[in-house]
Amino acid sequence: MTLNQMMSIKKATINDVNLLASLSVEAFLPAHGHSSPEKDINIYLEANFSIQNFKKEIANPTFEYYLIYHHNKIAGFSKIIFNTPSIHIKEKSITKMERLYLLEEFYGLNLGTQLMNFNSELAKRNNQRGIWLEVWIENFRAIKFYKKMGFTIVGEANFRVSETHSNPNYIMYLDHKTNSDE
Question: Which pLDDT belongs to residue 5?
């Protein structure tokens, strides 16, 4: 889907698994690489960002990945899961955003906002009442971004990096009822 001449968003396919695997590591490490001991980070990367894992997830219709390009160069991606409730939110028809990753070289170009808005509109078209996500409490840049997008903190959870390490996360929620033009 082309949004303008400089930026485009397309749904990822099985042909994009190698790209997703490398992009994930490249985007994850600057924001989270210092959040846990190196051995725990490596365990997380191997478990979640392998080509095999992406093949499995792309084949699963529950997961939707979208790639964002800037001047035809890959800039990042998102991962959403429709109809994924949270114990912190009373609404049931809600979308979980598991990932919204941008490469550092594309920070400040409004691409995160474009990708977030794209996913929000997609969720609305699929009768979702809102979007929720988990964000590491020390990822101040991401928290500021999500607050700017209309998310509020509704709870906390521990994000398991490995068998021996977890990081405290906020649960943030964007309520489509309070953030719509209706």
Answer: 64
